[in-house]
Please model this.
Amino acid sequence: MPRRFDFAGLIAPVSQGAFFSDTYERNHLVIARSDPTFYAGLLDLDTVMNCIETMPILADAISMVKFGADQHPTDYLGADRTADPRRVLAMFDDGWTIALNRMEMQLP
Model:
């Protein structure tokens, strides 16, 4: 059965009612998942790279992280201060994590 990535599916096993009455704007919601592939279909590398290659990802919307440390932006941004797809992919291939901020504002 395919995973539901609507709001209810993402916060399960917490119900929407419980979330809005007990958590929303009051507490952090942390759901421990024993399945490391739970979110695998939510956002894949092809989608991330398509965004980086076709959208102007500004400096404040991307960072590269490895072992908890941020890389200096000049290592993955172009002269126009947007993500350079070749540099980002090279760093990803070298073990860096691509952290994208506020992508919900840009993706359909």
